[in-house]
Every structure is written in C-alpha cells, then in structure tokens.
Amino acid sequence: MRIATWNVNSLRTRIDRVIAWLERTGTDVLAIQETKATDAKFPVEPFTQAGYQVARHGISQWNGVAIVSRVGLAEVEIGLPRCPPFGDPPVIEARAIGARCGDVTVWSLYVPNGREIDHPHYSYKLEWLAALRDMGAARLAADSTALIALCGDFNVAPQDDDVWDMAAFEGRTHVTQPERDAFQAVVDAGFADLVRPYAPGPGVYTFWDYQQLRFPKKEGMRIDFLLGSAALQAATVGAHIDREERKGKGASDHAPVVIDVDRPAPIVAVPPGAAIVEPTGSTGHGEGDVQLW
Question: What is the pLDDT of residues 137-159, one digit of tens each?
Fold first, then answer.
C-alpha cells in the first residue's frame, strides 16, 4: 500500500500532473494540501475516472485539503477537535481532513504558515499544532495499536539540516524554537517521522521557493512530512521524496513525499467514470460540509 502527501499549490492548475503522477507511481492514497478550491469547484471527475474516491474540504480560494484513495475511503472527519480559528471574523479554516483508507487512518494537514514571528498568524500556528498534538494523543490513548498517518505540509523545518542555510532564516518563521517544540510535541505524542530513516539529510528537501532560482540552486526546505503511529511505523517498509516532480513547467513548489506500507490493501471497485456520491454531512469541527465521491 503506497501513501503519499503533496502540497499541490492549486489543484485545478495542476490536475493533469497530479493524475499522471498517481497513475505513474501506483499511489493508493494521496493526501493533498493547498487545493485552493471550494468544494463546488474541486475537480472530482478526473480522480473518479482514474479509479479514486475523493473526500475534500474547501471553503474559499485559499487553503483547502483533500484525500483521494483507491483502497476505500470511510469515516471522513473535517477539522481538528478544538481547532483554533483565525481572522476577523474568526473562521475555522480548511486545513485538516481525515479518513480511513483501508485499515489506515490518513489525515491531510495544512499547518498555518506563521508569516512573521510577531504576527498573529504565528501564535495561531502554534495553537493549531497544539490542537493536532492533542488530537493525536487522544486517538492513541483510545487505541495504541491504531494505524494513523499525519500527512502534510507542516511549515516547520524541525532540524537545522532541513534548510539549506540557517543563517538565511535568522529572525524568520519555520525554524524558531517554539515551532520546533510544537512539532516535536506531535512526535512525542506517538508519531514518528516515517520518511527520514529512508531519506536522511543534509540536503534533502521537499519545498523550493519559486523565487531566486531556489530549485536549481538546491536551496530548499524539508517541511512536508508523514508522521506515523507506532503500528504504522512498524509496517512502513520504504519511503522517498519524489524530487523529480518538482521539475518542469507547471510544477508545484513542493514535491510529493511517499511511504510504502506492508499491509494488504482491500480491493475497491471504482469503475472509471463512475462517481460514487455519498453526501455524509459535516463530521468534524470545521465549517462547511464534506462530501464523499
């Protein structure tokens, strides 16, 4: 069973690349971030034609998360319990969606950027990560054997090796100690980095800014992760970062991050072109509804 996470930076712009990548790599489950699409404008049909079910959550042209799966998709949840709002008026943003795919619970997570250290978005980011930690800890307290994957763009570089030059980030977000402590708290709640053992640094990144030729200069950041419960960590047999997908015209500024899990994936018949429409209503703590296709 192959599970991946990818911040696509506008799904409608890159839908052809995403579908081609899924078909080329044989990925069973993809957690998508920064779809930048409301539910009504989400491109469901290309996924169903390729044999995937879709759960998505988008309430504006910003943020947006989704999970697509060809091994089953059930028990969809929107938002994190006690997720903090942001803005004026305060809104629960579309930054988290979870679903059971086969026997693995997969969360697609788009952690707030933080913007600047003295910006309210920075405090929001730390509160958001605390809500994620609390949710993860509660789930493992209820079932220590659960297979859970926390996938997404965490907007944190937890180690110095995860940026090309620490001096370039002095006084900036993503590398501050409070952010790293918040990330570590999620790990300490029972979720290990599933990819780093197979793709150690330095010089291993998942994001390269479009500006200043960061990609050809190999000036990147490692901010996209798959964190797994102990049971999922034990079942993970491989992982990699698909740096090649960052190349070429129309690429996202993030690369897909992938794990291979030694678990039998159930066979789910989803005929090409046949959309499975099962409105489930809102099942989590965010705003808006979720639909399962």
Answer: 999 999 999 999 999 999 999 99
